[in-house]
Amino acid sequence: MAISADSPTYTILEADGQYPDNILEDRIFNESPGHPYKIHFLRTSLAPVGTAYLKPWTEIPKEIRDEVDGLMILKLYLTAEDVELFPKLKVNVLFHDPYLPNGADKSIGVERTKDIKELFRRSSIISVHCPATRETRGLVNYDLLSILPRGAVLVNTARGEIVDLDSVERCLRENILAGAGLDVLPTEPIEEPAHSLIQAYRRKEDWLTGRLVLTCHTAFYSPSSLQEIREKSAQTMREVLIDRLKSNVITPDME
Fold it and tell me: Among residues 35, 34, 41, which one has the least CA distance to residue 12?
């Protein structure tokens, strides 16, 4: 894949100093790129092997701290003050929900976008969490996906009808999306012949290898999730039936 002057550069710092070389990291960061980019990998020794002493983050020169996009640590930890030393080391959590009351964003400390297009323009990772209604079916289409920053990732664990598979395939082929994780699909079980994107995934076509994960409504499965299903079921029953709240209610007019 051709790298140009416009390709983004990601500066990644392994701060502990646990390993003697960069062979493994160079391989993982550079193999099968989903879009053109450059990696600047650095290693410091704030917590080297064989010592319990942890050096302060301020030992890293400011000119390096100012450029770090990603930080890899093992024994080290970061306070709020430490994070402030890395101005580019921050992840931009945004959400859009037209139905929540004003101030809901303040209560959870997350930024709320004014409209859904702003959310997509500013997000490098989009995770879908909404019911399938007449308003949301086919909502995530090419018009929205195409305004994502190039190299973005889409995750859908909500309902398959919300995301248009034709648009996902097109954006993967055009390298707008670096990858996608789909736990849900528009039709479940999958009808044959399957969608062209699913067929490419099954055939392990080169252009898609390592860029798509399909978990067919099973990504949730774990002992803790089964316990949570039981708890949420009882909690929702109480809130709706006994406390007369409108938790997780989808009325016929919303379908």
Answer: 41
Residue 189 preceded by cis peptide, ω within 30: yes
**Tokens 């997000």 label which residue?**
123
Q: In 3D, which of 107, 112, 116 has the Cα closest to residue 95?
A: 112
Cα angle for residues 104, 105, 109 (degrees, 5° grid): 125
- Give the pLDDT confidence of 68-110 residue by residue, as tens digits: 998 988 888 888 899 899 988 866 789 999 988 888 888 877 8
Q: 180: which residues sit within 8 A by CB, 6+ positions away?
A: 153, 154, 155, 156, 168, 172, 211, 212, 213
**What was the pLDDT predicted at 62?**
95
Q: What residue type is 196 in one-letter code? A: S
Neighbours of 15 (CB within 10 A): 24
Q: Name the β-bridge partners of 140.
A: 163
Out of 4-18, 168-182, 213-227, the most confident range is 168-182
- In sequence order, what are the beta bridge partners of 70? 12
Round the average pLDDT of the chain to a whole number and report it: 89
- The answer, as to whether pTM is greater than 0.85, is no
User: What are the Cα distances from residue 113, in Å, to 120, 124, 190?
Assistant: 10, 14, 34
SS3 assignment, position 129: coil
Q: Which residues share a beta bridge with 182?
A: 156, 214
**Distance between CA atoms of 99 and 116, rounded to whole angstroms?**
13
Q: What is the mean pLDDT of residues 219-234?
A: 87
